[in-house]
Automatic annotation (TrEMBL):
Protein name as catalogued: Uncharacterized protein
Domain of life: Eukaryota
Amino acid sequence: MGRSPCCDENGLKKGPWTPEEDQKLVQYIQKNGHGSWRALPKLAGLNRCGKSCRLRWTNYLRPDIKRGKFSQEEEQTILHLHSILGNKWSAIASHLPGRTDNEIKNFWNTHLKKKLIQMGFDPMTHQPRTDLVSSLPYLLALADMTELIDYQSLDEQAVMRLQAESAQLAKLHYLQYLLQYSTSSLSTNSYDQTAITNMEGFSLLNSISNIKENSVMNFQLPPQVDNPAAASFSHGIASSQPLHHPSSILPHFSDPQVPFSSQICLNSETGQGTNFTMLSQGDHTANDDSSWVIPPLVSPSRPPTVTGTSTSNPGDASSTTSSHGGGAPSYWPDFFFEDPIMHEIS
DNA sequence: AACCTTGTCAACCGCTCAAGT
DNA sequence: AACTTGAGCGGTTGACAAGGT
């Protein structure tokens, strides 16, 4: 144990690095390797502590650093890994070639965390928050969607009910997003991520199913479910699996041919966004009510994921702009058509 | 134009851990 | 076994830029 004294030494420069210092450091490491970081500054002719040199190299000067905006795929990877690993930035960074833990940490704190909060999710647990304040954006979105809600006329119980429903909406929204990503992952051989995604999805399903007795939601699982985890869920025996402890159920998802797929259905006549039935993909017989529509699993505003590389430009705002095509219900708010992670409530 | 607020990100700080003595 | 040292990690800070008033 014991703290490194290097930064306490007097006379060593701190603060931003100059181009000259960068050049010295790069030239030295390219020629000799970094070796002992403690010894490096002296050998390289730098008036810095070894720690500062190491940080500068690993976070900025390393030749394999990828700079610029995070792609949508990288965002999704960070989200998934964070839901499992928590704030283990270096572990997350090891899955993102060219990205540093510092960069990912900054990106999380300045972008992703806020977006999750805005969506009504707890950024640490990745579960929907249930306090009223955090649910407000969704309550407002619901109001926009139906234009039927007069908040001033609501009693406390009604507000509580709306709050609960908005939390479930958030869960379903996130779930659809996860399942969508799961589908695209299958085509890119990202088995690990697929497993994670499915695990998160079923964790959400579990949490939703646990309250369905008192909820307006009604889920029906596919009649034939080959996947063990999904099957156990369908029999109501799957426990609520904490997101941060996926190992016990991950093996269930080792088979990439997971047959389970879900759709979120909305009543096209009533426009009740809170009434959902979970069906298997293409299963129109599970619910005989012809007024129910099954929106495409992939958000209508975005083209279906193409095998291999992403077709969308991560920095291009137009790639997430809703066009509301594909016959989706017109009463859906904009954010239903957008990548939830990209969506920002302005 | 000046000031204030907010967002971003490079860099620092303090801690833990593992290897070495 | 006890201690020292170096490396690495996560949290935090502060400088700067951009936008708003």
